[in-house]
């Protein structure tokens, strides 16, 4: 089994350490300190993390997030590096890979691509295929708010339907770039869009599910 989640975790921790606590990210309203706190709360505080999806838990999530953002930044970086507590399900390699590959990849790019001097990473084909597999399974969920048809297409022609409808917009790019696009990072994703001009404008203006 791959260890992509562990690799992306360490890359994210290193990057957060390098840019410091107040650097820009692609997550609206978040600096790097906020993003670091989010990652930690997600895997260490399930009692609060549900606030991202459940309205009733939002006040608790905000309270716990504030507690973590107030911690020393070095401590946050170390918590990300060391991972979840001993008895967390995220300690299981299968769970870690299933839940965290996309999480850590997207957030690493949230930091990298918000910096003025960023450059594209060279990703190996196995990792691209892994990201594509994740995207295929979640495309309909991520594309549910799109007001047009939306098809995601790899350069080799493989496709995933994110939303059925007309007119259809086809987004072409490597799986890593399509994933960023589908998670609401449209402006930072290196993709090509084909279709009706008005439909493309609607797709580009849609904030998909994302994290």
From TrEMBL:
Source organism superkingdom: Bacteria
NCBIfam families attached to this UniProt entry: maleylpyruvate isomerase family mycothiol-dependent enzyme (TIGR03083), TIGR03085 family metal-binding protein (TIGR03085)
Protein name in the entry: TIGR03085 family protein
The organism of origin for this protein: Streptomyces monashensis
């Amino acid at each position: 089994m791959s260890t992509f989640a562990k690799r992306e975790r360490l890359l994210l921790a290193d990057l957060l350490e390098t840019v410091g606590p107040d650097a820009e990210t692609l997550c609206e309203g978040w600096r790097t300190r906020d993003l670091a706190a989010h990652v930690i709360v997600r895997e260490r505080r399930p009692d609060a993390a549900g606030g991202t999806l459940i309205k009733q838990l939002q006040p608790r999530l905000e309270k716990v997030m504030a507690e973590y953002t107030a911690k020393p930044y070095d401590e946050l970086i170390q918590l990300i590096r060391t991972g979840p507590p001993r008895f967390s399900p995220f300690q299981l390699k299968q769970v870690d890979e299933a839940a965290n590959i996309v999480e850590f990849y997207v957030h690493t790019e949230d930091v990298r691509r918000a910096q003025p001097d960023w450059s594209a990473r060279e990703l190996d084909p196995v990792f691209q295929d892994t990201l594509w597999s994740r995207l295929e399974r979640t495309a309909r969920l991520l594309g549910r708010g799109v007001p047009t048809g939306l098809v995601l297409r790899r350069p080799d022609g493989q496709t995933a339907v994110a939303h059925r409808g007309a007119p259809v917009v086809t987004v072409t790019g490597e799986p890593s770039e399509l994933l960023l696009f589908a998670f609401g990072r449209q402006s930072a994703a290196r993709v090509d869009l084909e279709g009706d001009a008005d439909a493309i404008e609607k797709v580009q203006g849609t904030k998909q599910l994302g994290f």
